[in-house]
Amino acid sequence: MPTAAAPIISSVQKLVLYETRARYFLVGSNNAETKYRVLKIDRTEPKDLVIIDDRHVYTQQEVRELLGRLDLGNRTKMGQKGSSGLFRAVSAFGVVGFVRFLEGYYIVLITKRRKMADIGGHAIYKVEDTNMIYIPNDSVRVTHPDEARYLRIFQNVDLSSNFYFSYSYDLSHSLQYNLTVLRMPLEMLKSEMTQNRQESFDIFEDEGLITQGGSGVFGICSEPYMKYVWNGELLDIIKSTVHRDWLLYIIHGFCGQSMYVTLIARRSSKFAGTRFLKRGANCEGDVANEVETEQILCDASVMSFTAGSYSSYVQVRGSVPLYWSQDIS
């Protein structure tokens, strides 16, 4: 199992992508839209991904002033006195990641979500729709005849089918693991939370929910269990470059809630494949189509991890852990 880290919060819940000819500006905010972060993405580089994160937390007024200056500056440079120099490209709810085939990089954004469950005050969402945007400007694009074929292969993975995420709950781990992180010794928790809060902004601040220091609600996002993360490779290129508030990890499986019974299934990204093409185990010991299923029961009277009562039952299934295959004929 991965080493536990301090509870942190994936704070960026609302995003807007603005574009100029030379840059994309990704503006992300907390749900209350009181605190903002900004990523600058270079569009003049045909092959490499160049991202700048100043790691500054902006107020709403500051980000408006920044966008105003960018608009004015780009109109002046382009000599467009009668039109805008900064265009609003798309609104989104999270970054799935970045991918490159034979040309330049694409950014994949979650553009539609649906709330599926609530565990201890933490919302779990299903990805309903995504948008894949090519980053380099057409003026620097170096075309390749096979690019469209690789793009179609990538898009065969339907991201609107059974992919789930949470801004404040680590879906890659079981409830038992997450509550172990939450219930660390108070002195250690306070020390590590204070260190993290210097860098992260709290998605629950300004929303009437008590945060650390009491029977409150705060994000549980320890180091994810990459076995159950499906966009890990898409985020690897920016993981060391951007603030962790931008990193949103997605699982593939199922999440449903009826009354206060929650069922979560996490499908392993290791040795995955269709039923007849992947059987048995690989040389690393990963078995085909491994799924960890967790059933969670919670006290309906209190929706808080620190005050409510919870029960979790975990099962793991997968292919027979031997070297074997099956004739699909």
In words, what does this structure look like?
- With 329 residues, the chain is α+β, with helices and mostly antiparallel strands.
- It contains 5 helices and 13 strands.
- Residues 1-9, 193-198 and 206-218 have low confidence and may be disordered.
- Strand 1 (14-19) and strand 2 (23-29) form a beta hairpin.
- It has helices at residues 60-78, 147-155, 175-182, 186-197, 232-239, and strands at 14-19, 23-29, 36-42, 51-53, 87-92, 94-100, 105-119, 122-134, 163-165, 251-258, 261-267, 291-298, 310-317.
- 17% of the residues lie in helices and 30% in strands.
- The strands form 2 sheets. The chain has an 8-stranded antiparallel sheet with strand order 6-7-8-9-10-11-12-13.
- It has one domain (1-75, 87-192, 219-324).
In terms of DSSP E residues, the strand content is 25-35%
Count of distinct structural domains:
1
Give me the Rg, rounded. Answer: 22 Å
Q: Stretches where pLDDT falls below 50 for ≥5 residues?
A: 1-9, 193-198, 206-218
Structural class: alpha+beta
According to DSSP, the number of beta strands is 13
Shape: flat
How is the quaternary structure best described? single chain
End-to-end Cα distance, whole Å, is 39 Å
Subcellular location: Endomembrane system
Domain SAC: 154-329
Protein name: FIG4 phosphoinositide 5-phosphatase
Organism: Homo sapiens
Furnish the topology, listing elements before pairings.
Elements: E1 14-19, E2 23-29, E3 36-42, E4 51-53, H1 60-78, E5 87-92, E6 94-100, E7 105-119, E8 122-134, H2 147-155, E9 163-165, H3 175-182, H4 186-197, H5 232-239, E10 251-258, E11 261-267, E12 291-298, E13 310-317
